[in-house]
TrEMBL record:
Entry keyword annotation includes Ligase: no
Protein name per UniProt: AraC family transcriptional regulator
Lineage, broadest ranks: Bacteria, Pseudomonadati, Bacteroidota, Sphingobacteriia, Sphingobacteriales
Record PANTHER family: ARAC-FAMILY TRANSCRIPTIONAL REGULATOR, TRANSCRIPTIONAL REGULATORY PROTEIN
HTH araC/xylS-type domain location: 184-282
Keywords: DNA-binding, Transcription, Transcription regulation
InterPro entries in the record: AraC-bd, Homeodomain-like_sf, HTH-like, HTH_AraC, RmlC-like_jellyroll, Tscrpt_reg_AraC-type_HTH
Keyword check for Transcription regulation: yes
Gene3D superfamilies: Homeodomain-like, Jelly Rolls
Superkingdom of origin: Bacteria
Annotated source species: Sphingobacterium pedocola
C-alpha cells in the first residue's frame, strides 16, 4: 500500500504562523526538524545552500550527491527528501508563493529566473568561487539582524540575480524579448494543459507560432524539444500520482487523459524504463 506523501506548510516548519519568509542556518533548521527525513512536498518556495557536509538529496525522484557550495531550488509541489552523512551546514530559505506577487508590479517575476522553472538541469548548481563570500555575508546578515520584510525581499532578489549571473548565456533570455514572452507562455500553458494537450502542434497553435519555431526555441533555452518538455511534465505528474495517491493505474491513466491503460503503461515504460507498477513498488 502506497503511503500519501505529506504536503508541509511554511508555518509548520517555522513554528510561526505569521512568518512568510524563513532564513536560517541549515544546521539549526535540521536540529529543529530532525524528523524531516521522509519524502514530502511543500506548498511554498524553498532553497538550500550547502556549505559543509555530504549525503544524498532527492528532488522529484532525481537523486543528487550533496557537495559543499551546492544550491538547490525547489518550487511548490515538488517531492523531495534527503539523507545526510555527518555534520551538515549551510543556509535554508522558505517563502510563501505570494511573497513577491504582492511586492512587485510583475506578479510572476520569479519566473524570470531559470532556477525557478522546476527543471532539474537548472535548479541545482554549484555557487562559483567569486560569489561565495558575498552569499555568506548576505545570509549571515539576514539571520543575525531583524530587518524589515521589504529589506529581506530586496536582499533575496539581489541573491537571485547574483546566482543568475553565473548561468551560461544560453540559459538566460532577455526579459523584454519576444522569445522570452513566448517561452514563458509555453511553460505556463504546459503547466495548465499538460493533462489534455500532449502534442507540440497543439501548443504552437495556441501560441500562434509554427511547431518548428516552438521546438527550436525550447531546444535552445530549455535544452529539450517542445515534445520532450511536454512529455517530461506528464511523466513527472504520473510519478507524483503513483507515489502520493492510492489510485489504480487505470485511474491515473484516465486523469492524465490517456486513451487506455496500455497506452499509458507503454508511454511510462518508454520514458522511465520500467512499468508504472514497478515504479510504484520501487
Amino acid at each position: 500500500m502506497t503511503l500519501k506523501v505529506p504536503i508541509l506548510d511554511q508555518c509548520a516548519l517555522s513554528g510561526n504562523e505569521e512568518q512568510r519568509i524563513l532564513v536560517e542556518r541549515l544546521s539549526s533548521y535540521l536540529k529543529r526538524n530532525h524528523n524531516l527525513i521522509f519524502p514530502h512536498q511543500h506548498n511554498f518556495y524553498h532553497f538550500v545552500i550547502f556549505t559543509n557536509g555530504r549525503g544524498k538529496h532527492t528532488i522529484d525522484f532525481e537523486e543528487y550527491d550533496v557537495q559543499p557550495w551546492q544550491v538547490y531550488f525547489m518550487i511548490p509541489g515538488q517531492i523531495h527528501t534527503w539523507d545526510f552523512e555527518g555534520e551538515v551546514d549551510g543556509y535554508i530559505v522558505n517563502f510563501s508563493v505570494d511573497t513577491f506577487q504582492t511586492f512587485l508590479l510583475q506578479s510572476d517575476y520569479l519566473s524570470n529566473f531559470p532556477f525557478f522553472l522546476g527543471l532539474k538541469n537548472k535548479s541545482v548548481f554549484v555557487i562559483c568561487n567569486e560569489s561565495r563570500d558575498a552569499v555568506v555575508r548576505l545570509m549571515d546578515e539576514l539571520i543575525a539582524k531583524h530587518f524589515k520584510m521589504d529589506f529581506v525581499k530586496v536582499s533575496l532578489l539581489y541573491l537571485f540575480m547574483l546566482f543568475e549571473k553565473q548561468m551560461e548565456p544560453n540559459e538566460k533570455i532577455e526579459a523584454s524579448s519576444y522569445n522570452y514572452t513566448l517561452l514563458k507562455n509555453f511553460r505556463s500553458l504546459v503547466e495548465k494543459r499538460y493533462k489534455d494537450l500532449h502534442l507540440p502542434k497543439e501548443y504552437a497553435s495556441l501560441l500562434h507560432v509554427t511547431p518548428n519555431h516552438l521546438n527550436a526555441l525550447s531546444r535552445e533555452y530549455l535544452g529539450l524539444s517542445a515534445g520532450e518538455f511536454i512529455r517530461s511534465r506528464i511523466l513527472l505528474e504520473a510519478k507524483r500520482l503513483l507515489a502520493t495517491r492510492r489510485h489504480t493505474i487505470g485511474e491515473i491513466a484516465y486523469e492524465l487523459k490517456f486513451s487506455d491503460n496500455s497506452y499509458f503503461t507503454k508511454f511510462f515504460k518508454k520514458m522511465e524504463g520500467i512499468t508504472p507498477e514497478e515504479f510504484r513498488r520501487k
